[in-house]
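Ticket 4471: requesting a sanity check on a complex prediction with adenosine-5'-diphosphate. Repro inputs:
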Amino acid sequence: MGYNKIKNKKEQGPAKVKLFRKRHKIPENKIIEELRARYENIDESNIKNFEDFPLSSKLLKALKEHNFIEPTDIQKQSIGLALKGNDILGAAKTGSGKTLAFLIPVIELLYCQQWSRELGLGALIITPTRELAYQIFETLKKVGKYHRVTAGLIIGGKDLDHEKNLMDQYNIIICTPGRILQHMDGNKLFHTHNLQLVVLDEADRCLDMGFEQTINAIIENLPAERQTLLFSATQTKSVKDLARLSLREPIYVSAHEYAEYLTPEGLQQSYVIINLEEKMAMLWSFIKNHLKHKIIVFFSSCKQVKYTYEVLCRMRPGISLMALYGGLHQMRRTGVYEAFCNKQNAVLFATDIAARGLDFPGVNWVVQMDCPEDVNAYVHRVGRTARFRNGGEAILVLLPSELNMLHKLQEHKIPISEIKINPNKLHSPHIKLGALLVRDLALKETAQRAFVAYVKSVYYMRDKKIFNVHVLNTDAYAKSLGLAIPPRIRFLQRLQTNLEKNYEEKQKKKKNCLDDFDGKLMINRDYSSNYNNDDDDSGNDKEEQRLISKGSRAEMFGIADSDEEDILTIKRMNIEIEGEIEEQEVEEKRLVQNQRKSKNKALTKAAVAKKLMKKKIVPNTKKTFDHKGEEKIDPAKSKVSELAREYENQEASGIDIEFAKKVIHEEDKFDRERFRERIREKHREEKRKLKAHRKKEQSENEDEDEAVGSRDETYNTDDSDSDGADLSWLPDPDKIYGIKTPSNETESDEAMKKIYKPSKRKLVIMKKTKEKNKKPKIEVTEKGDLLATEELALELLRN
Ligand code: ADP
Ligand code: MG
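Returned structure tokens:
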């Protein structure tokens, strides 16, 4: 095939003598004609091996190489019909070989038409998940290895631009719905004019509400004249679904319609009833007891998978742990998928993206930690083990409130029996988990998200007879996850208050209507609509459910993948409303949607302003007045200029640009003045600081002077900023002259005045110098009371 370009060159050996005549080669179209002629005579009851089918020798060779000798039931029944060109609805248990049941006709059809690269796309295979697409692609590579058709794997998470240029090269495309639609919409190179055959693997999933619009859009782009094959273990028979595909007299092929059970024979199924808070302990104990097994553990949401994986990895259980969920990068997803395929013993924590179609070899156990949303989900999950005549075990963990699920399973021919867990054997890891969370904040947040995601998943489950969020012991559950404080479940609290409000309103309405009715003694339309038109309401609600955006659903369940984000949710949205409980449920959901809608829209200032303008609401303003009663204007908050204030008070709508320019100009003057004032203030502050600093230094120097005796420094008393001469450095005159008696007061005053008279000291600059080996001296540079000063200085030096 085109994708397998590596060719082994044969070693050149010595020339051989030809002993036999070269056989005449039959032309390919002749072979094809012969094969086609045999199509009419295919009788499935006579088919023992693949060779009994009129298949090309290339295909038979590849099948044989991979040990596909004897076809399975579904292969026997459907391959012949498909080769003849029929539309098929194929149903068979999980692991019964449905992939080959459609791949063989695909390869043969293109071969018989001698399909070439130039003809473009001949067959399109659509699957709901990337891993499943990848798996089918790998099987196609195996069985189509001798054919000359090209095949492409078109799934999300890969380089779209690179893919775009190759889209016209593929004869067979295996894809997920979202990605192929992307190419149909925006890639001119891609067309489906020549398409011969479409396959929907896991058809019921592809056709359910999650992919409804995408699949409809894809089908619109396909030629009406084509063959369609649908396969699933839980095949849809919905006329509405099938009408969308415009099938041509489809043939329903059910390989195990009359089988005793819906699930594989080799599968042992059991359930265990435990409380929510015991789940973690049960899982931990289970893993520790099955270290030599290959196990898949299903959870309801990505966040639970992420947390369980991360925290249990740190607890080192002694077995490889892996996680597969929508939020992972595609490279990592493929890596995990392949690694788990190749492992002998490992535990894979997964969401329902791993529930359908995946053929991991040798899985011993499927553990469903959370109850599946319905019987179909159960069938697909357990179908990951006991595949193709192998054995396997499945265990379903149920809460006491989820027992209704058992009745549903039994109704659908699923044999399941109870097993009890010995409580003594349960080892709860919650203390260790708690210690881990205390040390790691990120892990703690993951735990909190997991907790909320689980509660949400229960809340959004469709079947309220099974799932009841209000009975969950969430506090104990949080503790079991290692969370000392249970996270707030805000959405539930909000819903509760909204519901209460709604209930009160409803009651009021009811009362009003009854009053009307009593008063008028007649049935008016409003009254009847309030009480009897539940169906209409529910109809609207249903419509709203359908309108929920993908993004919000992904957010709800923490699934970031564009193809798979629908997997968990949509079915829950498509609610059949019967009776009181479901009506309430729908109402709750509508509230959530409304809330989410409003949440999604960011509230911008512009939007608020628009709203206010629309409603002509004038916002309150705060005015302050000075003691004279005049309004104080804060220039930082409001316009100052007369012109601007006039402009603001104008009532005319719209913006007068010229006037606005003038206003800006006017305001600019005030702004500049404010700026200048600020700079001035800053300078003043700097000066003030400098002065304080100097003062401090001065006093320090003084201290030192006292100790050392003198220092080399200049004091400038002529400081324009100073409030007068700083004389603090001078010694206390009382100490020098002694305290004078009152009679001497005038005399001493006179002396003091002589010394400290500010006018005399105004321009005095005294310089203390300290030269080596010289006595310090004081220079007085202005005439004043020199004698007194000299005397004082000498006295000072003497002391
Ligand atoms: P389904 O799609 O029905 O769940 P698959 O097509 O994935 O099942 O096949 C399940 C397993 O059975 C695969 O590992 C596949 O290789 C194997 N298988 C399918 N058909 C045959 C066959 N005819 N002979 C041997 N093995 C087969
Ligand atoms: Mg399959």
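Notes from triage: The pocket of adenosine-5'-diphosphate (ligand 1) is lined by residues 68, 70-72, 75, 92, 94-100, 357, 359, 387-388 (CB under 6 Å). Leaving this open until the requester confirms.
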